[in-house]
UniProtKB/TrEMBL annotation:
Residues 24-119 form the Bacteriophage T5 Orf172 DNA-binding domain. It holds the Pfam family T5orf172. It comes from the Eukaryota. InterPro entries: Meiosis_regulatory (IPR053006), Phage_T5_Orf172_DNA-bd (IPR018306). Coiled coil: none annotated. This is Bacteriophage T5 Orf172 DNA-binding domain-containing protein.
Amino acid sequence: MLAAIKFIVTTIKVLSIFDRRSKIYTFHIVEDDELEFLFKIGRTSWPLEERKLEWDRQCPSKPHIWYDGVNVNHSHRVEHLVYLELMACGYKRVIKCCPDCGKRYQEIFHLPRADAWETIIKPLIEKINAEVENGV
């Protein structure tokens, strides 16, 4: 409920001049048991290959399956709305320290299927991006 309210409030805020064109990317964090599927969703204005290398250096704990990113014009807004929509749909956000690198990540979600990029995440990014572009 709170995520849904935050979603509405965020959509009516004026776009920031600092909210720039970037790419929303996703990767699947491969777990040993794969009983649940973890997906990291983020944004980058760097080339995606550079972001992949940076991430692998920063946190080499688990294998990652990267997906092509989605170009958006207002990356901060779209990324934030994607997180809020996922939470409003009941998907759990993983907020804990990584046992390997010690960093506290907030952009990781438990999703019900291994194909969540194709069936949930990418369509959601595209939908929200279109809504932001059209001022909906």
